[in-house]
């Protein structure tokens, strides 16, 4: 089990970002220890890494929420395909 600081470190982010992801519903609130500290499992680490990677690719937090909302990988592929097409349009515009 991980504390919030350990989770953030494992995912190469900050505890503040983890709290923000809780606030916007991207990361579910975990169980708490008797002292009130959050306790995270490996699944939270993996989800946080996915969230971080998708935002690095240019997805907004609502798009990330949609992409991770279900088990339907096709939705994620569609979003990434749209992102690639948008980046290609931007690149073409810069070249012209």
Descriptive keywords:
96 residues; mainly alpha; Multidrug-efflux Transporter Regulator, Chain: A, Domain 2; 0% strand; elongated
From the alpha carbons, calculate the radius of gyration and give it in angstroms: 16 Å
Straight-line distance between termini: 52 Å
CATH topology: Multidrug-efflux Transporter Regulator, Chain: A, Domain 2
- SS field, number of helical segments: 5
Q: What's the main sheet like?
A: none
Give the number of DSSP strands: 0
Regarding quaternary structure, what we see is single chain
CATH class descriptor: Mainly Alpha
- The mean pLDDT is 84
pLDDT under 50 segments (min length 5)? Answer: none
**Global geometry:** elongated
Beta-sheet strand percentage?
Answer: under 5%
If classified by CATH, what would the architecture be?
Answer: Orthogonal Bundle
The level of helicity is 55-70%
């Amino acid at each position: 089990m991980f504390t919030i600081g350990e989770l953030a470190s494992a995912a190469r982010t900050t505890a503040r970002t983890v709290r923000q992801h809780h606030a916007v519903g991207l990361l579910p609130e975990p169980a708490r220890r008797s002292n009130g500290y959050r306790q995270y499992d490996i699944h939270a680490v993996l989800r946080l890494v996915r969230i971080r990677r998708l935002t690095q690719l240019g997805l907004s937090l609502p798009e990330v929420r949609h992409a991770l909302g279900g088990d339907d990988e096709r939705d994620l592929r569609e979003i990434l395909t749209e992102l690639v097409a948008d980046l290609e349009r931007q690149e073409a515009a810069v070249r012209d």
